[in-house]
Design goal:
This protein is α+β, with helices and mostly antiparallel strands. The protein is built from 3 helices and 7 strands; from the N terminus they run βααββββββα. A hairpin with a 2-residue loop joins strand 3 and strand 4. Helix 1 packs across helix 3. Keywords: Cell cycle, Cell division.
Length: 157
């Protein structure tokens, strides 16, 4: 059960960071490399507590679908999405937003997951999956940082 934890400091207010992180549109923009798109549930705008989204993406050359639901949310402090259906055995993904003054936020991203296939899944974690997921989350977080900082400067979305 790998747990990937990342922290990013963003020169933008907490609310901007919180909203961009739960924006379906920003998620699709940040994951263009894997052609991720929302195909069910909430497919655009801001996802809210109790709502779900079904994503379709290409990972490892295979088109996959994954449905995640927002199971916890305290605006603008944190939200949690959990897999309802998909390739993982399970995942719990917490997004936290800690204000560091009026115009700076620490975004903490904790992705706790279990791969399918028992021992084979654990081997896949060591060899490929954990590194792949770390890179995927880092790319997304850096995209959100750049977009939030642009928005905070008044340079559009």
């Amino acid at each position: 059960m790998p747990v990937i934890r990342m922290e990013v400091e963003i020169d933008a207010p907490q609310q901007i960071c919180f909203d961009l992180a739960r924006s379906i549109d920003s998620h699709m923009e940040s994951t263009a490399r894997t052609r991720e798109k929302a195909i069910g549930g909430v497919t655009s705008g801001l996802i809210r507590l109790g709502e779900s989204v079904t994503w379709e993406a290409v990972h490892f050359g295979v088109k996959q679908r994954l449905t995640a639901k927002i199971t916890e949310m305290e605006e603008p402090w944190f939200f949690v999405d959990e897999m309802v259906q998909g390739a993982f055995k399970r995942f719990y993904h917490k997004h936290e937003f800690i204000p560091l003054g009026e115009k700076k936020t620490r975004m903490i991203d904790t992705f706790d997951y279990t791969s399918p296939l028992g021992v084979l899944g654990k081997l896949a974690d060591v060899l490929i999956l954990e590194r792949y997921m770390r890179r995927f989350l880092l790319e997304r977080n850096l995209y959100l940082k750049e977009k939030a900082e642009r928005q905070a400067r008044g340079c559009g979305e």
